[in-house]
Amino acid sequence: MLLGHEKVSFLHLPTPLDHLPAVSRDLGINLYVKRDDMTGLGTGGNKLRKLEYFLFAAQKAGATALVTVGGPQTNHGRLTAAVAAKYGLKCTIVAVGAYPGEISANILLDRMMGCEVYLVQPDGDASEAELEERAVRETFQKYESQGDVPYFIPMGGSNELGALGYYECAQEITAQAAEQKIDDARIITAVGSEGTYMGLFIGLKDTKSPVRLTGIAISPSHEPDAAARAKGYFDQCHDFYNLDWVAEKEDFEIINDYHWGAYNNPVKEVREAIYYLARKEAIILDPCYTGKAFYGLMQMVKTGAIKQGENIIFLHTGGTAGINGPIHRIPMEEDLKDGIIIKKPAK
Ligand SMILES: Cc1ncc(COP(=O)(O)O)c(C=O)c1O
């Protein structure tokens, strides 16, 4: 029970907090990685912490199906599919966006786990929000007409309930940092729909943790004023959790400098940051979220926004399935093919 809300526990917790010696030496900081890519089901990732709370609420509502929304390659959708499979629920992901041309990456995993993917093609007429709303309504009607009880989970699992998963993670990180004697630590996390950031923010402040937090936006959706948007989300959580303290815009730190102008776009510099971490520490990031955040972290070391000697905890939020989607896999194949030596059979 957390702030009056129950969950179904299905994760491997605590996830490891590991020191990265080689990259720490290179960057002149003490870098740790919080392995929330190792949360368990469906190849893991941050959304599972949120889904523990949603599953409890869905079961309480008597649900027999989960319905969620996102981009065609949504990681959150894949993990919703994982939870549905594990707990015997039906599942549909509604996504507005072009068919990526092949069934791979998250979409392939969704189908493996028995989830239906409803890909709504933009018609240039109705807005994406309208198309999505219509498709969700249709999906609900379809389930209800066959006697099922659908339960809706918002994009990214990012509402007041979902953020509780990262309130809890904030407590976990605080305890691990104390155990490992990591003083004045700062978490760096990717920010998408913001539930991860907000859960951490509230969890850290509410428990008076010494750990600090910086978010790196992975798309322009947080512009022009990321702090104002965060304040709105915080206010919703404030009432829902009955917090006895308030936050102001200035308390939120979400950096908009490293999103490269779009959501889930292929970026050479981000790929290079991914190869760097893979080659130094055998940790695989994804190009949409963690790769952009890690690139941002390295730039922040260069600009001095992260100081030499600082203790940094990089939150690995998962998402590596995304490297197998053609938009990222094809440029990666191009980058990496020169190390593949094909020896012809000697005649
Ligand atoms: C791999 C990965 N990292 C980070 C995020 C960002 O989390 P949030 O949407 O809670 O900001 C997401 C969200 O989809 C994700 O899939």
Q: How would you describe this protein?
A:
The protein is of the alpha/beta class. It has two domains: 17-45 and 159-336, Rossmann fold (3-Layer(aba) Sandwich), CATH 3.40.50; 47-157, Rossmann fold (3-Layer(aba) Sandwich). The longest helix has 20 residues, at 160-179. The protein has a six-stranded mixed β-sheet with strand order 1-2-10-7-8-9, sandwiched between helices. Strands 5-4-3-6 form a four-stranded parallel β-sheet, with helices on both faces. Helix 9 packs across helix 10 (290-303). The protein has helices at residues 21-27, 47-60, 75-86, 105-112, 128-145, 160-179, 195-206, 226-241, 268-281, 290-303, 326-336; strands at 17-19, 30-35, 65-70, 90-96, 116-120, 150-153, 186-191, 212-217, 254-255, 311-316. The mean pLDDT is 97. It contains eleven helices and ten strands. Bound molecules: pyridoxal-5'-phosphate.
